[in-house]
Amino acid sequence: MIDPEKGFTSDVITDPNRFVGRIDLIRSCMQALHSPNSLIAIYGKRGVGKSSLLRQVQQMALGDYTLATNAGLHHEIPDKPRTYLTVFYTCDAIIESGEALVSRLCNDQNDEDGLLRLVPQDGKEIVEFTRTKEVSGGADLKVINWGAKGIESSKYARVVEGDTVQTFRNFVSSVVQHQVKGKMKRDGLLILLDEFDVLQNKNGLGSLIKSLSSKDIKFGVCGIGQDLTDLIEDHASVERLLEQGAIHVKTMPDQEAVNVLNKAEELFEGDLGIDDDVKNDIVKASQGYPYFIQMIGKSCVSKASQLGLTVIDRHVYNRVLEDIKSGVAFPTLESSYQRAIGNSEARQMLLHLLAEQPEEMTLFHEDVGRILLKNVRKDAAEFEVDYLDQNLPRLLDRKFGPVLRRIPEGQGIYEFINPVFRLYVNLRAI
Ligand SMILES: Nc1ncnc2c1ncn2[C@@H]1O[C@H](COP(=O)(O)OP(=O)(O)OP(=O)(O)O)[C@@H](O)[C@H]1O
Ligand SMILES: [Mg+2]
User: Could you tell me which Gene3D superfamilies the record lists for this protein (predicted)?
Assistant: First the structure.
C-alpha cells in the first residue's frame, strides 16, 4: 500500500520542496519582504494556492530561501535579505471588526504561530525550531512550556483595560525589543493573516493595518478576491504600502500543473509512476487548480494500490473517473452537488449546462471564470423552455450552497463561487 500523502496533499504546502512553480509570485514576495515599508496582500480565487504561497512567504521571511533557489532565482536573492520572526493567524467569520481581530491576535495560544508565544514572560520556555526538514531552514521560535502562570494573556505585557489596540502595540513592541532584535537579531516582526476576506466588517481595516505597520512590523494579508478591494476595502489608505506587495495568484499554466504531477513522482521516490498521457488528462481536467490535481492524484494513488499497480496508467485513471462520475470519489464535493440539485432533474441539467460553458473574460478583470447567461439561454432552449428562470434562484441561494454568484459588473453575468466545484460538475455524470 503506497501512502498517497507522500506525493499528493490537499493541505496547505509549508515545505518549500513540495511547492511547485509560481516563479513570478515568489519574486514579488521576495521584493515585498525586502522592502521595509511594503505591505503584502495575496489574493485570488478559491483553491488556487494562496495560503501555500503565504506559508512560503513565512519561510523566506525566516531567512530560508530554498524555494527561491529551487526556482532559479538565486541571483535575485538580496545579499542581506531582511529577516523576520513571524506570526501566522487564520481569520474566521466570527471576527466582527479590526479591534476584534487585534484582540484575537493578542490571545492566540498557538505555540508555533501565535503572537502570545513571543511575548516574554517569566517561566515561559521558548526554543528555536524550523518548519521544514531542511538544514538551512530558517529558525523561528516556539513555546514548549507556557510557565507556571499559565496562558492567561493579561499576565504577559502591559495590558491596557478597554484599549485593545494599545494592548496589541504593547505586546508587539515587547516582542520586537526582546525577541526580534534581542534574542534573534532579526530586522522585524512579520504578521501574516490568512483568510482575511472572511472578516465581517472590513471597514477601516486598511488604515488600522497602516497605523500598526512600521519599519519593525510588517503585515501580510491573504484571502479570496478578484482584486484588492475584496480584501482591503479602504485600500486607498494603504495604496502606497502596496506598490510592491499586491500579489494576484492566478490559475497555474499547464506546464506548472504538469510539474505538480512530476513533483509527486519525485516525492514517491520511484515507488510510483504516472503515464504521460494520464498526466495530460489530469492537467486538462484541473484547469490550473492545483487543489484538483492533488485530489485526483490522491485518488489515483489509492486506486493503483487497490489494483496492486505501481503505475498510474490509463486503466487506473479511467477507474478513478468512474468513481467521480458516480459520485463516490470526493464526498465533500458530492454533498455540495446533491445539496445544489435537490431532487430536481431540471436543476441538475442546468447545473451541468452552466459548468460546461466556456469561461469568458470580462472587461474589468483579467481573471476568467465568468458565465454569460445569454449563452446559457441558447443551450437551455434546446431542452426545456422555462426551467432556467425557475431553477437559477436556488443555485444563488445560500441555503443550497450557494453555487453561483451574480457579478455586479453587468447583467446576466455569473460565476461559480467554488471553481473546483465547477470542475467537479464537469466530470460528474448526470
Ligand atoms: N505551488 C503549489 N504546488 C503544488 N501544489 C499546490 C501549490 N499551491 C497550492 N497547491 C495545492 O493546492 C491546494 C490548495 O492550496 P491552498 O490551500 O494553498 O489554496 P488557497 O488558495 O489558500 O485555497 P482556499 O481559497 O480554499 O483558502 C492544496 O492541495 C495545495 O497542496
Ligand atoms: Mg487558503
Answer: P-loop containing nucleotide triphosphate hydrolases
